[in-house]
Write a structure and sequence with these properties.
The strands form 2 sheets. This protein has a 3-stranded parallel β-sheet with strand order 1-2-3. A two-stranded parallel sheet has the order 4-5. Helix 4 packs parallel to helix 13. With 328 residues, the protein is mainly alpha-helical. The chain has 13 helices and 5 strands. The longest helix is centred in the C-terminal third of the chain and has 30 residues. The protein is globular, with a radius of gyration of 21 Å. Its EC number is 6.1.1.2. One of its GO terms (molecular function) is tryptophan-tRNA ligase activity.
Length: 328
């Protein structure tokens, strides 16, 4: 069975874009793959954060995985900082990573612009730690958004370079980009990805938003000129984004939705239906999520067990890499 690795940064409330672009897909992947799903808290501390919020966010991220349908009997769920092999492997990979490679990383450029007063070495080195995350588990497939493909390509480069220099050690992972829903865009700006760090809360729908809040945000979502409900990301990015969301929460093909709204002459009814569909989609998730948060000890036990099992796998890879390098 092939191995899948992925993770989410516990850097704030998880929004609908995270869910539809990544976590929803994970639930299906665990049926056919050995899945490793990590709460990547070391990545979260590369940008400004609150220690108190970080620990709560980590717990809520794990609860999100579980409420979404990730089964700890089928998949590994653990917190990155609970397995020190990640940072040790990152240091080893740092010795073969090249500075120009990291300087080319688009996300580093974007985050540096966003956090000008807090550019740190961890932010620069983020992709090497991500490579360590991936390579430790003999990962075959990394489901990512389009914005993370560059990081997976670096992991591939480092794996090949290590293998060529020290001997065959790492699998060469492949990225899996879900084209439909890979990038859910902001409700207030369909030209930018939905983001937890957006200035306006009207940009995103938090998974725990109330029905009233969800309906209000979608009602205020920007639209395109005209009234035709047609999927055309280039000319109608706002409506195309809403169609994508509608399709993913109802499992209806976009083509079918276009037919359903062929004779509509305004966006108002369409946006109301999108909002109702999102509310219906999130209602069972929110119930499970809230129930889980009432039992934090159970979540922590799942994370502890997951970390132990994860380390049994990662230790073998780390030990092999160190042996190949001549570290005694």
């Amino acid at each position: 069975m092939k191995t899948v690795f992925s993770g989410v940064r516990p850097s704030g409330a998880i929004h609908l874009g995270n869910y539809l672009g990544a976590i929803k897909n994970w639930v299906e992947l665990q049926k056919n793959y050995q899945c490793v799903f990590c709460v990547v808290d070391y990545h979260a501390i590369t940008t400004p954060f609150s220690p108190k919020e970080l620990s709560q966010n980590a717990l809520e991220t794990a609860a999100t995985y579980l409420a979404a349908g990730i089964d700890p009997k089928q998949s590994l769920i653990f917190v990155q900082s609970h397995n020190p092999d990640h940072t040790e492997m990152a240091w080893i990979l740092n010795t073969i990573a090249r500075i120009p490679e990291l300087e080319r990383m688009t996300q580093f450029k974007e985050k540096s612009e966003e956090h000008k007063s807090a550019i740190n070495m961890g932010l620069f080195d983020y992709p090497v730690l991500m490579a360590a995350d991936i390579l430790l588990y003999g990962t075959d497939i990394v489901p990512v958004g389009e914005d993370q493909e560059q990081h997976v390509e670096l992991a591939r480069t480092l794996a090949r370079r290590f293998n060529q220099t020290f001997g065959e050690t790492f699998k060469i992972p492949e990225s899996m980009v879900r084209k439909e829903g890979a990038r859910i865009m902001g409700l207030d700006d369909p030209n930018k990805k939905m983001s937890k760090s957006a200035e306006s809360s009207l940009n995103y729908i938090v998974l725990t938003d109330t029905p009233e809040v969800i309906k209000g945000k979608i009602k205020k979502a920007v639209t395109d000129s005209g009234s035709e409900i047609k999927y055309n990301p280039e000319n109608k990015p706002a409506i195309s984004n809403l169609l994508t969301i509608y399709s993913l929460v109802t499992d209806k093909p976009i083509e079918q939705l276009e037919k359903d709204y062929k004779d509509h002459t305004s966006y108002a009814d369409f946006k109301k239906d999108v909002a109702d569909a999102v509310v219906e989609f999130l209602t069972p998730f929110q119930k499970k999520f809230n129930d889980l948060l009432e039992k934090p000890k159970e979540i922590k036990k799942i994370l502890e067990d997951g970390a132990k099992e994860a380390r049994e796998i990662s230790e073998k890879t780390l030990r092999e890499a160190k042996k190949k390098m001549g570290l005694i």
